Amino acid sequence: MTLDPSVVVDYLPAIGHGLLMTLFAWVVSSVLGILLGLVLALLGASRLRPVRMGVRAYIELMRCTPIIVQLFIVYAGGPSIGLFLDPMEAGILVLTAHGAAYFAEIFRSGFSAVPAGQTEAAHSLGMHPFAILRRITLPLALTAALPAMISMIINVCKETAVLSIITVPELTFEVQKMSIETFAAFESIFMLAICYWGLIELFSVVGRAIEARLNRHLTLKEA
């Protein structure tokens, strides 16, 4: 089977638009998911048992149900409770809520990796709890959790493909439309794979560079 470049060329504008939509959903959902995950991780360490139980219940619910089910509940079931969202809004909401559960667990593991002596020394110096979090606990936790965070952000990118089911005009949706209109299944799948590979590989390179720079900074700081 050979690749017909003319089919791909004709649909490049549509594929480019879909790629931008995928990038938008990916970036927004990842940023919001990380922020919400951090909040959940902090609440999960609360001294109040009901708060801890609520956070744990949310995390388990998000992790134990498929993202496509969550997407249908929000987009198709939302109007029954007065939640009217367009496809992109529903998609970003679900990607954020789903990813936040995993980011919360990543942050939790990062916080647990922070040496107790670091925070004990800060307390002994009379530092405010927020200052300890901002200057000691959070930077060390982020360093420990960075590889897992990069992997999770990559997963969020791949999960954007499910948004095509609710007609979000992202990459998978545009490529599916190309396949239906031209019957060029091989060319469509090939372009879809290349685009996702390009996005994820580019982010992986940036992520490895950030991780290496952070490790060098910590090494110099310890020295």
Please explain how this structure is put together.
This protein is mainly alpha-helical and 223 residues long. Helix content is 81%, strand content 0%. The termini are far apart.
Instruction: Quote the distance from N terminus to C terminus.
Output: 58 Å
| Total of helices | 9
Give the integer mean of the pLDDT values. Answer: 89
What structural class results from the helix and strand content? Answer: mainly alpha
Order of helices and strands: HHHHHHHHH
The main β sheet shows up as:
none
Strand content: under 5%
> What is the number of beta strands?
0
Which consecutive residue ranges, at least 5 long each, have pLDDT under 50? none
Radius of gyration: 21 Å
The helical percent reads: over 70%
Shape estimate: flat
Please specify the SSE layout and strand pairing.
Blueprint: H1 5-10, H2 12-44, H3 49-64, H4 67-75, H5 87-112, H6 116-124, H7 129-159, H8 171-182, H9 185-222
Helix pairs in contact: 2-3, 2-5, 2-8, 3-5, 4-5, 5-7, 6-7, 7-9, 8-9
Provide a quick synopsis of the model.
The chain is mainly α. The chain contains 9 helices and no strands. Helix 2 packs antiparallel against helix 8 (171-182), helix 4 packs across helix 5 (87-112) and helix 6 (116-124) runs antiparallel to helix 7 (129-159).
